[in-house]
Amino acid sequence: MRSALFSAENLEKESTEPGLRLQNSKMLKVELNGEVMARTGAMVAYQGQMQFQALGSGGVGKWIKKAITGEGVPLMKVTGRGDLFLADRAADIHLIDLDHGDALSINGANVLAFEPTLNYDIKMVQGMGMLSSAGLFNCVFSGKGRIAITTAGTPVVLTVDAPTYADPQAAICWSASLQTGYHRADQLGLGTLIGRSTGEAFTMSFTGQGFVVVQPSEEPPQGMAGHGSGQQAGGGGMLGGLLGN
């Protein structure tokens, strides 16, 4: 049998070390020898002996926070030995290695998988008040380990060494040490009064030293639960503003 489908670039990539690897730009391969945390429903194939255990949002404390904020990462724990393949709607996948002392704030909708050595918590994005329905709470990862995140298209990584601004629906993760806030883009004027707008009511601001990852897509507000409705995310954002006062 002959086909370009069977070219070397499409064949399974082998490695002698366990852990998270890229099979290609849109598929993650986990050479499992123990356990890994992954987004519920992200498994597309596996080889070997594995068990899948649903964890909700990752524990009672995080489940309570999800119930309050509308945010969270629906997780499953995969244990066993073999090759596990993960993907999320053909989104681009990127690997980030965290060391002790690092902390990454990320929209939970962009979390695909991570090593169990990492810790995460749901925290309010400071400085946003009640101005956005695009998710006022993020997951903050810390510790030492590897995490796989997804983006809608090829992102740009902006080094923050001067005040930086981004659409809150396009900024998917950033250094947790950065200070966040908002910058109002639309100004009240004649154009606004007659129904004309730039479409950018406000942008997120980032100051300090670090980086912010921006994807080339303004995803509809859906919160960190991943695939919820904009209305649900908006409710979480409104409550987040109330909690922050």
Give the topology, please.
Blueprint: E1 19-24, E2 27-39, E3 43-56, H1 60-69, E4 75-86, E5 92-98, E6 103-106, E7 111-114, E8 118-124, E9 137-143, E10 145-151, E11 156-160, E12 164-166, E13 171-175, E14 179-184, H2 190-193, E15 202-207, E16 210-214, H3 230-244
Number of E-type strands: 16
Give unreliable regions as ranges. 63-71, 130-134, 190-198, 221-245
Biggest sheet record: 7 strands, antiparallel
Radius of gyration: 19 Å
How many helical stretches? Answer: 3
Strand content: over 45%
- Termini Cα gap: 66 Å
Shape: globular
Structural class: mainly beta
Helix share, percent: 10-25%
One letter per element, helices H and strands E, the order comes to EEEHEEEEEEEEEEEHEEH
- Average pLDDT across residues? 78
Can you describe what's shown?
The protein is mainly beta and 245 residues long. Strands 1, 2, 3, 4, 5, 7 and 10 form a seven-stranded antiparallel beta sheet that branches. The longest helix is centred in the last third of the chain and has 15 residues. The protein is globular. The N and C termini lie far apart (66 Å). The C terminus is likely disordered.
Task: Label this structure with key terms.
disordered C terminus, 16 strands, 245 residues, mainly beta
Structure summarized in a few sentences:
With 245 residues, the protein is mainly beta. The chain contains three helices and 16 strands. Strands 1, 2, 3, 4, 5, 7 and 10 form a seven-stranded antiparallel sheet that branches.
